[in-house]
Amino acid sequence: MDSISGQAMFLLFCFILSCFLIFTTARSRGSSRRDTTLPPGPPRLPIIGNIHLVGKNPHCSFAELSKTYGPVMSLKLGCLNAVVISSPDAAREVLRTHDQILSGRYFNEAVRSINHQDFSVAWLHPSSPHWKQLRKLSVTQLFSPQRIEATKDLRMKKVQELVNFMSESSEREEAVDISRASFVTALNIISNLLFSVDLGNYDSRDPSVFQETVTGVMESIGNPDFANFFPFLRFLDLQGNGKKLKDCSERLFRVFREFYDARIAENSSRTNDKDVSCRDFVDALIDLSQGDDAELNIIQIEHLLLDLFAAGTDTNSSTVEWAMAELLRNPKTMTKVQAEIDRVIGQNGVVQESDISQLPYLQAVVKETFRLHPAAPLLLPRKAETDVEILGFMVPKDTQVLVNVWAVGRDSSAWENPTRFEPERFLGKETDVKGKDYELTPFGAGRRICPGLPLAVKTVPLMLASLLYSFDWKLPNGVVSEGLDMDESFGLTLHKTNPLHAVPVKKRVH
User: Fold this and answer.
1) Where are the domains of the chain?
2) Residue 450 annotated as binding?
3) 401 phi and psi angles, rounded to 5 deg
4) Which CATH superfamily is domain 42-506 in?
5) Model-level pTM?
6) Which residues fall within 8 angstroms of residue 207, CB to CB, at 6 or more apart?
């Protein structure tokens, strides 16, 4: 009996062992098959993985690595699994084919430091009712075709103020900080849309606190951070990105709250209804935040305004600066675009928004600037919500997905002479920046496309055309066009490391 029992136990042990071996072998084979379909990537060091390869300009480092490892590249950044997309075809997979699976956000620690991911239209998940509410509010109140048309005179007025400032500088033969002047213009456009006030001025003796603050927001969110790679370090905030974002956002929140409270007080003291034509965005926000059935609270409003404020100023001004830098570095292109503007505008004295559609070469200059200098070189990080296949490679669930639009814009398989500034490449072609042409998506695409795109594609060409129509431009003494510094500083947005200074030379009397 004991012999039979022993044999039974032995057979049971063999059976269990066989099942275990079969299971582990099958799992190993399945894992091997899965491993073979993971995107390729550079060898990893213990613990840090590929962090040492990121560098101070990740978009450049990733572009260089992609030349070796392909347009769908896998990186291990400490504890973080990341995939970098670097070709139009791969971008199409992410931004269109698998847009729904990849529309979530990967929150970095700076964003978490102010809980921005819980309130921001840029970071909330598109399935969230609050995201849908904020997106609808932004579009209908600011970026719909009707609102864009209704605010045309405002943009014209603010751009004319920029031209007037340049005229004063021209009379003094002073070099102008193009970055700062264009930022003040973009700032006053957005602050008037939101609050009906100017928040910037062109006085060079008064440094732009708003520009420093908005740039600080973009840098703190965009900068590489060890806390993103090793979550157990987040409480240390070793690089200070969390503290910097808290400080900068609090400064802006105080400004927003002051305008909000002042408008409530103004409206409560008003004896008659406010003229509809005089209402601005903060009035719409107040309507949604009052009463027992309020849809928004002040915290949600502050974070929405932070999104709109940052995205509506820094990106537009940096694009104008890069365009002017490229034109000063390419005098023949500058001459060509100015000749087109002069031919169309003639002696009218002022560039109108309606004129832009008749300036194809100017539009090509703007597109070429977006191609070489996208404002957000890696867009905002996406997150895979399930395993997903991109161009034959498996991207596992919870992987951070970065679309390197900077690299896509310089992809030699998509562009001839990709590093040259050649606006002619866009003439006679329908390629646009509105999210349908995946070789040129500086605003993203799909449900995550930047809601401010309609405003940007009006503001940037108008500012640039006005500067080129009213003035000739030269570099300060000692600076030659061929040697113009084009170094980049990486953040959520891409800036010239050293701001562009140029001298406006008035070429006509209006």
Assistant:
1) 42-506
2) yes
3) -115, 120
4) Cytochrome P450 (1.10.630.10)
5) 0.90
6) none
